[in-house]
């Protein structure tokens, strides 16, 4: 890979000045895979190589690039087992109705709500979510050595004085996880305070204000995408994750996003489930991002139309560290109207 190509990849990752503990933006995963494959950016589905050596899902865009170069894991992890435990797949009950109809109806429900969707902690507006993400260690021979993860709880609090407090702690493990290898839940991993008047948050994290017109959502989401190719539905799902991780959206904005996604011909519905935080939900699926390797889930409340969670599922056949299918990442937001 030439210096120019590497420079293009780094710029595409939009690393900014993020902390190494920030959740990786979905677009950075594609950049990382391109670096590991030593190829110029293309739609991954068009590439001939079947070897997928690494998709770690922890760290900022810049940290992900550093993982690709140095092949390291977070210091809180203990020695990882050869085969990683992953969360159980969601248990789903089929539902009647097409994916398009069901998600459009949820968009209508969301539109009926009012106000911002956020969690109030200590009287402040807060973005709060749990993340589980697989971190994979690669040996010098390019083979997977081990995979490990710590569940994490993220809080971004927007204070009255204009400062922004970002806090990362160890979350409760999923049922069946190897708890003896994990830090105690509540352990502080990282804490950052952005002082009032600085534009660091906007430059490094904050997506632009989402539109409220469904007809404008496609162009908006595409503008967040770092490549010239038209985003797939799975990539649209990933950009929605990026938005909800970093911005408090209104019900009207969220309704516009759901309505736009409901019109996509690749949209599928799995059925009803209970999400990782014990909430009833409907599961929608996208299989058009790296078909045969990854599938993306968007998990929505059937009662309010609020987006509750998102998951990434590995469905490939060339990894030895996890089974197929396996959950490789999930986000579960705690939000109130």
From TrEMBL:
Transmembrane segments: 54-77
Region Disordered, residue ranges: 1-25
Origin: domain of life: Bacteria
Keywords: Membrane, Transmembrane, Transmembrane helix
Protein name stated in the entry: CU044_5270 family protein
